[in-house]
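Fold it.
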Amino acid sequence: MKKTINDRLQELTKKLSDKELLESNSLGNEINFHVFDYDPEDEYIVREHIENYLLTKTKLNIKVFDIYDIIIEILNEKGFLEKVFEYEKTKGAKYVNNVISKTLGISTNSDLIMQKIKKEVEPNQIIFITGIGKCYEIVRGHTILNNLHSVITSNPVIMFYPGSYNGQSFKLFNKLENDNYYRAFQFVGRK
């Protein structure tokens, strides 16, 4: 029987409190990366749970990185955000997404998203990655996880993913096939 999103969020909360998560004892020395996948229509329920429960009513040491917000912040810092709006009007979204990817240096040694995350991560924090659905044309979930390997080595990472993850591959919004990724563990099963 399929669990409801609320049942899964309660299970998520319980698992976050388990000291084994920070110690990664049960992973056989694998990286401590996890995916909490959910149906896209549950986006606001998941967001609400993170913002109004996990971050305010628990004593968990959680750091949230919303990838979309980081992209906007970087573009703003570079004075490029307004230009992006102009480009979109004149050259279209596909062109803009390509320019943004290049500006951010995604999957290069100078990946600005990874640099920003690395600068803000502290020991013993549980890292949440959110915003994947909001920026899917610029960067994909599997790319973020691949790039995080070199940035986060001891903190547990949980990516909140609007779609499905079967332990081998992602399906964004339960529709768009993504590249294979098999190094993360599903954090809370759907059944």
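The chain has a mean pLDDT of 90.
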